[in-house]
Specification:
Length: 207
Amino acid sequence: MTAKNHFIDTILELESLFDQVGEVSIKKEVSYLHPSYQAMISASPFVILATVGPDGLDVSPRGDPPGFVHIKDEHTLWLPERRGNNRIDSLRNIIADSRVALFFLIPGNGETLRVNGRARICIDPQLLQRFAMQDKLPKCVLEISVDTVFFQCARAIQRSKLWKGISGEVGKSVPTPGAILQALTNSEVDGATYDRELPGRQKSTLY
């Protein structure tokens, strides 16, 4: 037996690992924003944006009060681009390849929502004003034309216990941002100082 025997590299081999797709799993996918799916988007304060470009893939979080992703119509979404680290990896990718995927999370709800589509970057002043927060405008707004929409069942959320109470021990096992930066830069960044100043800096630059 060669090492190759332990890897799947054809669709036929892949499909042989799994059961038939359930009829419901097919029926729940539609090409527009059904009112039920609109309700999920309006309740979500957090979405993950995935893009692809010449330098590879990117996935990044977006968050604001529930309903921050605006439903223009049953085929179009508006997603504001807030202040961040200025890497703009997602936006660079969209310029090169308009394909995007959105993954909506709703705290306390097991089901998640997946939207695939194509995005354009808009800087229309009136549209930016519509998304003002704390008197600050987003840098731009992504206009996303919807291709497919479907909800994901709750198994992953249930297995992870994502919305259960979090033990204080969990945070203790994760290095702080300052500790990570200090390690990555061979102490060029003072981790303790970075962590001490971070909450105030985040608060003052949230928007």
